[in-house]
């Protein structure tokens, strides 16, 4: 085999390996898990430059702050997430309210979290993730009827194969076993 053909074969094998890794990550739901926060406290990742910037700088857009707040919340840094959400110029978006609900629910303030989720649903009734989190909050409150309603709505939005449906169905199932 000549060197050029060998090099192309190696490149093709590398591309196939990368594609399979990406496919496996998507099949296991990893694409929906946000990356871990990697900026020092008080900073966010600017999506344009891919660098950490002070959270109050003009370089940090509301979208960057909102997404980074979710990264913080998923890393169990709930108070930091809420503080970052407090810096938004427009805090009343479906995403920001959903993430605020998530952080407050995880801090044990379930009723407050439900309030944020309901505001998010009012802004975007087709947002499957907020319906999943709202359903999980209802499970915590023992309101399985309301959790089931959210599960059925998610089913109409993205079928039974989406991560939101699977996660809420699992939470309902686990709660009904106890």
Brief descriptors of the model:
single chain, mainly alpha, about 65% helix, two-stranded antiparallel sheet, about 180 residues, elongated
Shape: elongated
| Major sheet attributes | 2 strands, antiparallel
- Derived from helix and strand composition plus strand pairing, the structural class reads mainly alpha
Kindly state the percentage of residues in helix: 55-70%
User: What is the straight-line distance between the termini?
Assistant: 63 Å
**Poorly predicted runs of 5 or more residues:** 5-31
Give the SSE string. Answer: HEEHHHHHHH
As a percent range, the share of strand residues is under 5%
How do the strands of the widest beta sheet line up side by side?
Answer: 1-2
Number of strands: 2
Number of helices: 8
Radius of gyration: 20 Å
Mean pLDDT: 86
Short note summarizing the structure:
This protein has 178 residues and is mainly alpha-helical.
Task: Report on this structure.
The chain has 178 residues and is mostly helical. It contains eight helices and two strands, in the order αββααααααα. The chain has helices spanning 3-27, 62-74, 78-85, 94-106, 110-123, 128-140, 144-158, 163-177; strands at 43-46, 51-54. Strands 1-2 form a two-stranded antiparallel ribbon. Helix 2 (62-74) runs parallel beside helix 4, helix 3 (78-85) packs antiparallel against helix 4 and helix 7 runs antiparallel to helix 8 (163-177). The longest helix has 25 residues, at 3-27. It is elongated and about 45 Å long.
Helix and strand layout, with pairings?
Elements: H1 3-27, E1 43-46, E2 51-54, H2 62-74, H3 78-85, H4 94-106, H5 110-123, H6 128-140, H7 144-158, H8 163-177
Antiparallel strand pairs: 1-2
